[in-house]
Amino acid sequence: MKNFKKILNPDKLSTLLLYISILTFIIAFGFAHNPPGGWYQQFLPNLNGQPVSDVIFLDSLNGFAITDNDFSNDTGYILKTTNGGDNWNIIYTDNRDFKAIKFINLNVGYVCAADPFTSSNLLKTTDSGLNWFDVHPPDPALTLDDISFFNEDTIWVVASSGFDGGVYRTTNSGINWTHQVNLGGNNPTHIYMYNKDTGYVAGTTLYKTTNSGIDWLQIPGGGFGDMYFINATTGWKCYGPMQKTTNGGLSWENIPLPPKSDTLPLSRVISFSNINADTIWGVGSVGVIGSSARGVIYLTTNGGTTWSYQIPDISINIFRYFYTQFVNKNIGWSYGVATGVHTVTGGDTTITNIINPTNETPENFKLFQNYPNPFNPETIISFQLSVTGFIIIKVYNALGTEIETLVNQKHSAGSYNVRFDGNNIPSGVYFYNLFADGVRIDTKKMMLVR
């Protein structure tokens, strides 16, 4: 099972104030939300301010979370849910700084830790978290940052500390460990083993092994916070930019994310989850609705060539998601440091826009500002084509709901005007998008004032 490393309160505001606060910067560059959305919020119990450091779901019901206490108080937590995250129970506490949690199957799992106070920094369960016991570690003084395994016997851990850190492997469930490599200042914080022979480690520099970690080859592409291979040659990794390889990790190509904008001041992915080779969910970005910053959830259905994004319902106030995981096409989670969201319907049911993966507006097409603006009740929207294309112009309200499709047909080169009638909609801010041959060209804002 793949591990995954994540404003307004309408009850306190009148409906009018709520709508005013979210009228700015919602649709620009393809905001994709169609309330009521397919996400709902989930909550962790009181953890005395300790931030979640990792979350994993083994299936649609069973999941685990751990906290990173940074030694700011005496308690680190391991939590478990058996109902898909609707309720979480604290199942283990100790004076440890938990770093990563991974499971081989529903019963057998491991937790890495930083633990200078006791004799172990590696915990194991064989009964799905009911009981945890210490595993003999490679060095109890190390901070173990991440773990990967082939089976219950063959396990790798990484430690980023410079003197004794690096990559360690055991082939007998931790009874003995081999220090496979020390990379000094490049010691890794993450490890991903695709099988018993092939895997990757990285801090800021990427290394690959093809012989179970005996040898490591530095390869271009930088570090990673999350990695997943669909087969031996095709994989993805991230920590900020998304990258893809089709040659077994020997080279990596950047996958363009939606460009930064007023709506999307931070555009990056720090955790992602593959459903298959085409469908990937990602988190790590921040969107702006009115004066509020909120977490963004990305989705691609073509392996990363183009992306849409959505911001869960306006009653959910989560600044950023750091962990995301889907167990199938409908059931998934995105979590921040203290709370998260869950879907059982595949996220928001309507994805209105696919993001143009470049920052440049094609010169062949141009969308003009409507006139008059503000308007009451009609306005003219003009667009210009220098080549033939299939043109779509859609109008959205400030919540991202599609109001009307004004154009949906093939046009030859030339200049065109289309009338928008606002007689049947309320006053407010609206947005209109121009698509040409399936690519979003531009978005503009207009205001209806009665």
Brief characterization of the structure:
The protein is mostly beta strands.
Written account of the structure:
The chain is mainly beta and 450 residues long. The longest helix has 7 residues, at 15-21. It is elongated. It folds into 2 domains: 15-343, Methylamine Dehydrogenase, Chain H; 365-448, Sandwich (Immunoglobulin-like), CATH 2.60.40.1930. It has one helix spanning 15-21, and strands at 40-43, 52-57, 63-67, 76-81, 89-94, 97-103, 109-114, 122-125, 133-134, 146-149, 155-159, 166-170, 178-181, 190-193, 199-202, 206-209, 217-219, 226-229, 235-238, 242-245, 253-255, 271-274, 280-289, 292-300, 308-310, 323-326, 332-335, 339-343, 365-367, 378-385, 389-396, 402-411, 414-421, 428-436, 439-448. A hairpin with a 2-residue loop joins strand 23 (280-289) and strand 24 (292-300). It has a 4-stranded antiparallel beta sheet, with no helix packed on it. Strands 2-3-4-5 form a 4-stranded antiparallel beta sheet, with no helix packed on it. 2% of the residues lie in helices and 42% in strands. The protein has 1 helix and 35 strands.
